[in-house]
């Protein structure tokens, strides 16, 4: 017996497409199911200026296979030298949808990020004025803060002060991994939202470490205790408009993951919608999947919902997803949830 679920075509509000051969290999995996995605700017070198974002957007569109309908929503990488006028011009022309804040050293390719938050105050004030959202990788980088506490400490020490100092600034806490993140977002009646990844709804820190280290489950922020995973599930499936899908699908080649110093990032573009249907069904909340994946994000960003639909199908036999995507840079392992999934996208 098959079951179907038709949804407004979803968007991905946090995506890494990389560049060159990797871009070519992973872009179709997202464009197949998603109408739009917020494109992360942490290339090497990062996408800092409007001119760089325009050139990157052109490379993405050139890599898009003919016949695929997909719109990249570009972002700028905030540095201590970012020019508020360049940001405002990129926003006014419709080129960018958000600016991304990486605390320096917090994650993959974040060395050009921000250390001294006073230096970016003029940019944040300009963004509040023009209504341009700030997407935040919310982890402190202090060596003395335990990696499992870095999100909670960031909220108290950095995020809350930034928001209080910049009234009206719209902020997205990207890829929240803790009940602290959920609670903080719920405490704000306006101007604050959060993306939640597919993998953080599925794995906790045991999945990374028990029975041997699993490099393909390592991402940042690192998955936390089970109680946090359950808080994320409750938030994602609640229908609360402040929570929406950002897969943080972050491809790295297998040699770079399966290494003595493996890169952070889970590649979930290929099977995200099937995995989400599984998770939402487990939570008895299939009816909230459309809000999470297709409606809450556009509402937060002030954009129209996609016009087209996708249909998810549940069949009697497990769906077959590729174990790897091949790129000319090397293979990329597709996120394996560790259980059979019966959903797929028609
Ligand atoms: N999430 C990750 O673990 N990695 C991301 C960076 C990021 O989103 O922090 C990447 O670019 O690989
Ligand atoms: Zn991040
Ligand atoms: Zn990311």
TrEMBL record:
It holds the Pfam family Amidohydro_1. Zn(2+) 1 binds at residues 14, 16, 100, 248. It catalyses: (S)-dihydroorotate + H2O = N-carbamoyl-L-aspartate + H(+). Binds 2 Zn(2+) ions per subunit. SUPFAM superfamilies: Metallo-dependent hydrolases. Its EC number is 3.5.2.3. The active site is at residue 248. Belongs to the metallo-dependent hydrolases superfamily. DHOase family. Class II DHOase subfamily. Homodimer. This is Dihydroorotase. It comes from Pseudophaeobacter arcticus. The lineage of its organism: Bacteria, Pseudomonadati, Pseudomonadota, Alphaproteobacteria, Rhodobacterales.
